[in-house]
Amino acid sequence: MPKRTLYAVLIGINAYKRSPLEGCINDVLAISDYFEKLCEAQGKSNGQDKEAEVMKWKPLYLLAPLDEAEAQMLKARKIQYQEPTRENIIKAFDHYKKAKPKRGDFALLYYSGHGSYIEAPDVFADVSPLGVIQTMVCYNNRESGQHDLLDKELGYLIARALHGKAAFDRKEGDPPGVHFLSIMDCCFSGSNTRSDEKDIKARMEETGLAVAEESKILGFRMEGNEFYMPFEKGQSRVRVGGLTHGRYVNLSAARDSEKSHEKTLEVVEENGQSRKKKHGIFTYSLLKTLEQSGSRISYRELIQRVEMEVRSKIDDQIPILGMSKAEDDNQYFLRNEFTAPKQEYEVGYREKDGRQEWYLKAGVVQGIVPPNTTNPTSFMLADGTDRVVRALEVRATESILDGAGFTETDKKNLLLKAAIHEMPFPRISVGFGKKLPGPMSASIEAAWESRPPQYARMAKDNEVAEYEINSIGDPLKAPGFILTRPGGEIPLFLRSNSASHFILDVDKVGKWESVLRMSNPSPGIPREDIIVEVKKLEGAAFNLRTFSQIGEEQYQPLPDDPPSIELTYKMADGKPHQPAVKIRVSHNSDFDSYWVGGLYLDSQFGITHEYLPVQQIGDESGLYQVDMGFQFQGSTFDAIPLSMDARYHNFGITETTDYIILYIARNSFDLGQYKQEPIPLDVTRGTAFENGGEVNMDDWFTVKIPIHITRPIEAVEIASNTNKHLGGLAMRTPAGFSATFQLTNRAAARRRAEQLAAHNPGLDQMIFLPPGHLWAGTEGSEAAFFCSPASRPDHHISILELTGIAGGLDEGRPLRITPGHELAEKEAILPFGYDAEKKQYFPLGHIDEAGDVIITRLPHPTPGIIGGDGIQEEDGDSSVKLFFHKVAGKPPKGELGGFRMRGKG
């Protein structure tokens, strides 16, 4: 095999003068360590040069350490770097010139630092649907009067670097080309998280310097180049389709309406002291996923698993996958040309702070599970002696070993390695929130000691907990226990006043999370040996007696191996009907037979294995496909009806996410041990008709399919001078005003905007999606109306659509909306609308002392309807759209700066 090279440009900036960061250098070093290890795992060349590596690692570092101590650490690691100024970052793209398409080289761009935005220059107005240009904040560029590195400038640099090296339509016999992967751990917009956890910091700066003139934009040429299509006579703006992107895949930390965050994610021991070590939540989660899932994973599945990890640490950050060719989301990580590092880890010896210590270079990030009182964690030395050593402590990236099993000779063995011998089932770590009252903490400790949970453990003093126990209460109820993400305020399930009952529910969360994260980093089974076929049913009425009579033609087939399944309650005969799904697992190998089974994980932490019992498919069994199904009241079904109770609307939730996990293995296994009932939420949900320990599988892998179930809140006509409860909110219309009310959320708005933009690329998306930069410098949340069981933040009610309006509103006759929960001190819900002519947002009212939202004016109607399922909408339909956002402390700047907070003028 010819020698190939992975060229990397790694940028990390901590030393911002105005808003310094702490985790970016740590991120760069962690990324560098992982990819260097990945390259080394490809082995040595079989050519004449016996010592040559098959895959060379060629990094170029651009770093701005926070202080002298961090600079000395880089010096000790012999890291040579340049300052990440705008000029140096631009020049760094010359590093990719060495990448050879004939060899099939690889290119990596990694950035960890602040993102920002500027108002889109007029030349980009038609290709900037939200009116802004995203930017990377370089080191000292603002202090020297330079503008940030614009996303269009970055696009030009990538296109120039890949010009002639990465074909979109590769034909047989063509060179493999250069594969370009971009990873961006920064953000460009969004609200700061409302949290008492000061450890969490957003990686976003306020708006940067505007571009003075088009000639200052790197790469912009009206006559055209690698990135820009030539302008035609009379053309003054870049047209939709006028940019020619290079072929690349991009992994980003957050969506354009959210912030990415850094926080303490590990604690290291230095000089006898514990030191908190910060990382970007996205980078940490990405590396943890790659370490535990292996490198043989598609980009779409990778980002889904990373999202699970990110969401386990913070509520309001959702990483995204971008690509310049739509089909590349199916492409495997680094073209599936890298073998995952062998699961053997370096063992070392050191004398530290006056004590001798044996350690293994792997920890929680690599999937090592800490030992407990009944189940040890141990490793077998890979030196042929079959010695087994126990782990005394498991840290983030290393494990401390029992020195009793080592000899003096081992201290001189610089090549000593070990593999996992035994581990307990993974458990989530739980800690106490800072504001949890002492008596409540004591009751938890007593209940925990009397009956320790099997799938959860208390975090140690120097450990960063994955979940926190907090309290919640209101004037009418005693404080109750809730479980939240660290620094978050949204409970994962409803409160419990009993410590022992609460711990039982925590144990269910631990089991559910551990099952969801299970994966094999080095599967030997080819992924293409298994095909998953899915069909969905929407908008059809059925019940127990008629379900099996629904014809196959009524089911809509999805592409094979779908990354997720989107299902919606759709209207038929004036009523919303629950959806259903058919899932078939097919054998696709000429050689091997496999055992397959499945687990269904519902959104309230229930687990069932009964929809796909473990069975063998392939030549050995003569069975080549199996269908997920179930038995109910004596009948057998080959489809699964999915249900979301309408009472979820009382919590402001219109969408839930369940998971199907398919297990494929060479040997038989049992999944029955994972079954558990869901945690009650005062509602029923999951698979139903309406109205009526560790797996030993040898070689195995999992297929994880999220199922997003949407049940829109039905539109309701509200007459004038009427009180009406809708979706958990109380509406009060004034005399002389009536309308049809439809509550919806930003997730539905995003889907609707994407549907319309596919047919109308010039669509003004700000009609549907207020950009996140509106909230720059503020604290708040998209979850405007509810403090409800955690779901994705954009699933909470945050939009009200009005149609069929009669009458008007003013200060004397407002529309009054009472939220579904009591607002905290200094919190307010900001109502605002969009002026499509001026392309500006403006406040629609204020909030009173009681916390009610007072709407005193309405925006003009705009095209398109967000709410409902959209299947009955006629062309030309429009609605009056009211948006809501929760803010805390102070109102936003700019066009919404006139909003009146509680107790102010």
Account of the protein in words:
With 905 residues, this protein is α+β, with helices and mostly antiparallel strands. It folds into five domains: 4-112 and 163-201 and 245-336, 3-Layer(aba) Sandwich (Rossmann fold), CATH 3.40.50; 344-368 and 370-422; 428-517, no CATH class; 527-710, no CATH class; 716-896, no CATH class. Helix content is 13%, strand content 31%. Strands 9, 41, 44, 45, 46, 48, 49, 52 and 53 form a nine-stranded mixed beta sheet that branches. It has a seven-stranded mixed beta sheet with strand order 3-2-1-4-8-11-14, with helices on both faces. Helix 1 runs parallel beside helix 5 (281-293) and helix 5 (281-293) packs across helix 6. Mean pLDDT is 87; it is low at 191-197, 682-686 and 871-875.
Name the descriptors.
single chain, 905 residues, Rossmann fold, nine-stranded mixed β-sheet
